[in-house]
Write a structure and sequence with these properties.
With 132 residues, the protein is α+β, with helices and mostly antiparallel strands. It has a single domain, classed as CBS-domain. It is built from five helices and five strands. It has a three-stranded mixed beta sheet with strand order 1-2-3. The radius of gyration is 16 Å and the shape is elongated. The termini are close together.
Length: 132
């Protein structure tokens, strides 16, 4: 990085997050994700993030395993939720993404508040901008 500034999760995270309650039916979560043009949805229990469901999860887990859309989203969510803090560097985020073989990391503060989400595209964009 030319400037020497450490780029943190809070600098590159997307703040427009789609979330649903843990009891939401898969069909309702899928509709919300589609309506809002999202590729993932964070599952919350009493406003605390507890899991994530991606488009890929909807296809793989729901259709091939349960074959029902009338089940709670918690049945197909990935949990425990792998997440990072807003002050973690994007290098730490990248290590976590590659170590866990995932594509996005929810950013959660010390009060369990969901702040945003970081994906590889946002990291790549930040790195390319920092070189200019």
């Amino acid at each position: 990085m030319a400037s020497g500034k450490i780029i943190r999760a809070k600098d590159v995270m997307h703040r427009d997050i789609i979330s649903v309650d843990i009891q939401t039916l898969v069909k309702d979560a899928a509709k919300k994700m589609t309506d809002l043009d999202g590729d993932s949805i964070i599952v919350v229990d009493n406003n605390i993030p507890v899991g994530i469901v991606t488009y890929k999860d909807l296809v793989k887990k729901n259709i091939t395993i349960t074959n029902s859309t009338d089940i709670p989203i918690r049945k197909i969510m990935s949990s425990p939720l792998i997440h990072a803090g807003p002050d973690q560097s994007i290098w730490e985020i990248m290590d976590l993404i590659y170590a866990r073989n995932i594509r996005r990391i929810p950013i959660i503060d010390e009060y369990d508040t969901l702040l945003g989400i970081v994906n590889l595209m946002s990291i790549n964009k930040a790195l390319s901008l920092s070189r200019n």
